[in-house]
Amino acid sequence: MRVNVREVGPRDGFQNEPEVVPTDEKLRLIGLLAASGLKRIEATSFVRADVIPQLADGAEVLRRIDVPGDVAISVLIPNERGLENALRLRDRFQEINVFLSASETHNRKNVNRSIEESLSGLERVLGRAREEGLRCEGVISVAFGCPYEGHVPPERVFAIARRLRDAGAEEIGFGDTTGMANPAQVRSYFPAARDALGEDVELTAHFHNTRGQGLANVLAALDAGVRSFESSFGELGGCPVPAGATGNIATEDLVSMLHEMGVGTGISLDALLEAARAVQEVLGRPLGSHLLTAGPVEWNDSPR
User: Fold this and answer.
1) How far, in Å, CA of 215 to CA of 97, rounded?
2) For residues 31 and 23, is the Cβ–Cβ distance under 8 A?
3) What is the pLDDT of residues 161-186, one digit of tens each?
4) Is 8 left (phi over 0), alpha (psi -120 to 50) or beta?
5) Helix axis angle, 251-260 relative to 269-283, nearest 10°?
6) How far apart are CA 172 and CA 200, in angstroms?
7) Which is nearest to 73 in space by CA: 38, 27, 47, 41?
8) Phi-psi domain of 157 (left: phi exceeds 0; alpha: psi -120 through 50; beta: other)
């Protein structure tokens, strides 16, 4: 078995940090991530600088980024204006991600729009992006549960996903944005998503470790046939709303578990840990990744 891992730390992680990571450091860290064998990296977002100053250097990051040619760079696009700004550097990235929430309350708090307002705008974004030859992913936040509204009916999530698919999204990411999912829920969720969306859409799982169930949910998703995951080195990231929504699952923890299970990723765990240690040094504080504390598993042949 082999899975694909998209690294989202340079965008999802850095935008949630209280300080602004210097551009040169971002470029160095992205280079380390690319050197690990990761083939998909979300590098930045074209959002308003006054809203997320941590990503105000998005255009400069794209201009100066230096990764192997087989590494796909993606950018998060919030709206049509963001896409227009990104397209000025069209030759510097290959993929876009768009996002909205599966609950009205979370979507209002996150982007100050209704779900329908978000969807209508993103449908236009996806259509234009496909015209430009970009690969498109639609990410649905709070897909497994909302901290404000509680249960989110899967049928509502799948209806949103179908509209994103029909507008041009080749990949749908289901986000456990505030860490409310559990393995039993995940194991039944993805077969239902496959039935709702058909065989041609790539299904991606995006888990957060807010309540410590991130890797358990990965295992459940694997059992359900998912072969695409998003994660963040160092367990960086979170959600601007609500308080207490902590980081994504750590890429190095994810890759370590997969490798120990005999699942291929094409990623060097040692090189990935080098990137995670580097970002921990840049931020100057301990990060949540288990491997940063314990290191990788070391097997030997001595008697037990």
Assistant:
1) 23
2) no
3) 999 999 999 999 999 999 999 999 99
4) alpha
5) 160
6) 11
7) 41
8) alpha
Which residues does 73 contact at the CB level (< 8 Å), separation at least 6?
A: 41, 42, 43, 62, 65, 67, 92, 93, 94, 95
Question: Which residue did the predictor score with more confidence, 302 or 5?
Answer: 5
The rounded distance, in Å, linking the Cα atoms of 294 and 235 is 14
Q: Give the model confidence (pLDDT) of 36-89 as tens digits.
A: 999 999 999 999 888 899 999 999 999 999 999 999 999 999 999 999 999 999
Catalytic residue among 77, 122, 129, 239: 239
Residues 6+ apart with CB under 8 A from 283: 17, 19, 21, 234
**Helix extents (H) in the chain:** 23-35, 58-64, 80-87, 104-111, 115-131, 154-167, 183-197, 214-223, 251-260, 269-283, 290-294
SS3 257: helix
Could you read off the pLDDT of 218-253 as tens digits, one per residue? 999 999 999 999 999 999 998 766 666 778 999 999
Give the pLDDT of residue 304.
Answer: 41
Euclidean distance between CA atoms 71 and 10, whole angstroms: 14
Asked if residues 204 and 228 have their Cβ atoms less than 8 Å apart, the reply is yes
Question: For residue 253, what are its two tokens?
Answer: 């923890």
Quick check: is 239 catalytic?
yes
Helix (H, G, I), strand (E, B) or coil at 261: coil
Q: Full-prediction pTM beyond 0.90?
A: yes
DSSP three-state, residue 132: coil
- Read off the tokens for 288: 């949540």
Q: Give the number of residues written for the chain.
A: 304
Q: Which residue type does 104 have?
A: E
Q: Is the pLDDT of residue 91 over 90?
A: yes
- Look up residue 152 and give its two tokens: 């989110």
